[in-house]
Amino acid sequence: MYIDVAERATVAALFRCCVRELPGQAFPAGAYTMVRVGGVWLRALTGGGTAVRLSGPQRLTGSAWEPLTSADLVELIGRELPGVNGEFAEQVTGSRKVIERVLAARAHAKPPADPWMASEQELVFGHPFHPAPKAREAVKGDWIDYAPEAHATFPLRLLAVREDLVVEEGDVSAVDRIPAEVPPGYRLLPVHPWQYELIQPPLGDSGLLDLGWADHEVLPTSSVRTVYDPLLDKCLKFSLDVRITNCVRKNAWYELSGAVELSRRLAPVFAALTERFPGTRWLPEPGYRSVDLGREMLEGLGVLVRCSPHGRCGPGVTPVLAGALALRDIGGGDPVSWWRAYVEVVALPVLEAYFRHGVVLEPHLQNVLVGLDPAGWPVQAVFRDLEGTKLVGHDLAGVPGEVAAAMTYTPEKGWDRVVYCLVVNHLAEIAASLGAPLETLWGVAAEEISAYGDSIGWPEPLRRLMSGVPLPAKANLTVRWARRADRAATYVPVANPLVVA
What we know:
The chain is an alpha+beta fold. It is 36% helix and 23% strand.
C-alpha cells in the first residue's frame, strides 16, 4: 500500500513540474491538463481547476491512454531537457523511497500532542512542484532517526568548547540552560546527532570535549535540521551536511552573523507591522554559538537560537504550520470569509514590510505559522527563518561585506521573491484546499490587496501585479536537472489570478 501511495505522489509531483516548466507544451483539455514531454502526450485529471490537485496521470501509447509511472516520466524528462543528468533518476527514486518509509513509520508512531509540532511533522509528500521533494542525501547515518514526518524524537549530542575557542554573537544564553556537566573554562555547545556522526568533530587537544547525550529529547520541525527543545522552549537551527531537495543544509558563517544582525534591525519593523496589522508576529533569532577551529567546524557546528511561537501568539490562539493547513479541509462552513481573513492576516503585512520598510520576507508555506482561534479561523501570522529574509535599500555601513551581501536584494529580485513565495507558493496552495470556486477566492484576494494598494498610493510593482502580469514560479525541475545551487534558481512565468479590472 505504501509503495502505491508513494509512487502516485512521485508521479504527480513530476507531472506538475512539467506542466509548470514546459508552459508552451501544456494546456487544459476539458477535465484534464495535458502536457507533451519527450515527444509523448501526457494527461492528468485537474481537481478544482488547479494543477495543485492533479491526479491519475496517464501517457498516450498509440491510441490508448495508459497509467504513467515515475520511471516513465523520468525517461521522458531526460529526452526533453538538454544535457545529461546521471543522478536525477536516483534522486527521484530516493525521494519516493523516503515517502514509502515515512508512511510505514507513521503507521506505528505517535504524533506530538502539541498541535503546532504535529503540524510541523505533517508534510509527508513535500513540495508539490519539486521532482524529488523528499530526497535526502548524506554520506552516512539513517535519516529516519531524525525525520519529522516519522515523528522522530532524539536527544542532542553535547560538546564542551574551551572558552578561548568559542565564537558567538547576540544572546545565546538559552543554550547554557541545557543540563550538562561542563568543566570550568568551557562552554556548552549542542550538536545535532546526525551532524555529529557526519563531521566527527576533533576532540581532546583541539579544545573540544564530548559530554555525551543530553538527558532530554527534542523534536524536529519541518526543515529537519531545526529542532524544538521543549525544556528551553526554543528552537535550535543546526547545520546538517545533508542535501535535502536542492541544498546542503549548512549554516554559513555569514548567515549565522546575518541572522543576529537582522534580529536587531527587524525588531522596530515588526513593532510597526504589528501596530498596523495586529495579527502580525515573528520569531527572532537572537544569537548563535560555534567554535573557532577553521571554517568547516565553524559552520558545521554552528547553532542558531530561535524563539518558539509559544508565548508569542495570543491567548487561545494555536499556531499551525501553513504547509500543514494546505493539506487539510479548511474554511469550515464559510470558506470565502475564512479566506478573506487569511489574506488580511498573511498577505498584507508581507506587502507592508516590502513597500514601507524595505524588508523582503520569505512567506512560503514552511516559513509561516498561522495562528488559529478556537473556531479555527486565522487571526495571526507568525513569520520565521531569517535566512531568506533580505533588506532593500538599507544602510548597512559597519556590517562586514559578506554578511551585508547575504542580507540584501535588489528591489527587483526582492519583489520577485515576495510574489513567488506569497502568491504562487503560499496563497495558491491554500486556496486549492478550500473547496470554494477559485475565481471567487482570487476575486476576494484582489479586493483585499487592492484596498491595501489604495491605502499606500499604489506603488508601481503592486500596480503591475494587480494588472495581471505573469507571476514568477521557481523552476525546481530545471534546477535539479542542471544541478544548480538553489541560490541560482531560475523562474518561469505562470498565469496571474490577481486581476483588477
